[in-house]
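Hi team,

As requested, here is the filled-out complex form for the guanine run. I kept the field names the same as last time so the parser does not choke. Let me know if anything looks off before we queue the next batch.

— J.
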Amino acid sequence: MTAKIINGVAVSAEIRKDLKVRVEALAAQRVVPGLAVIVVGNNPASAVYVRNKIKACADVGIHSFRYDFPTDADPRAVLDLISELNDREDVHGILVQLPLPPQFAISEILRTISADKDVDGFHLYNVGGLVVGNTVFPPCTPYGVVKMLEHEGVALEGKNVVVVGASNIVGKPMALMLMQHDATVCICHAKTRDLAQFTILADILVVAAGKPNLIVPQMIKTGAVVIDVGINRLPDGKLVGDVDFAGVSEKASLITPVPGGVGPMTVTMLLYNTVASAERRNAAASLRQ
Ligand code: GUN
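And here is what came back:
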């Protein structure tokens, strides 16, 4: 069996086409969706991600506002900026790029962002919404994975899904979203003993561990759907995921590449959440008139 490759760039392009139509509809009501992006320090990976996010905003007609702080910034200055952005009419989404330097308490930063503008879906209110199955802003990476699976017609109900990685940004919200779709979900993490005994059972395997070649063909079931969320830079500069792509492609039915798989979907779902936020705010304002 040779797996079909899920093209994240193509799926993203379809979603972005729809978003442009929604942005035009908002423009007709004099609303331009706005995203504020806050960057602290000069993490090279963050610099690339933020550049991609800002470029993608321009592609669909979202206004972006970028704010840069030095690595030794006082967290108070960032908190003050967030409070100001919370009150701005032209800002519908606020994103603080992670990781942050050690003097920052991430939880304090995230809870200062208004839950109504939390397009990353990291505020506790939105995390709670995810737990009970009605969050306003689902976190972008797992949301992108769900959209990709939907696009490929992969049913989730009753499927065995194994998520490798239990981070707050990907693994945990991914598991909650899949449960909401009635999948049987197992979460593995760095302390899991004998990972293969779990992964071999997966109809759908989602890997977000940050370890190149963690998943090799012997660890997967023939015909499994394999979603690789990992982004790792090898010493030779090559970008790879967490899955042995060449080997696993021979055994899976569907697989995402790195790059060009989940990465573009993450950015697209950020745009999606920002447009949805502008629509919500506009609908609420129309009701008040
Ligand atoms: N750092 C790595 N991934 C993300 C993300 O999805 N959002 C933010 N804000 N920071 C990140």
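Two things worth flagging: The domain at 140-263 is CATH 3.40.50.720 (Rossmann fold). The chain has two domains: 30-116, 140-263.

Thanks,
J.
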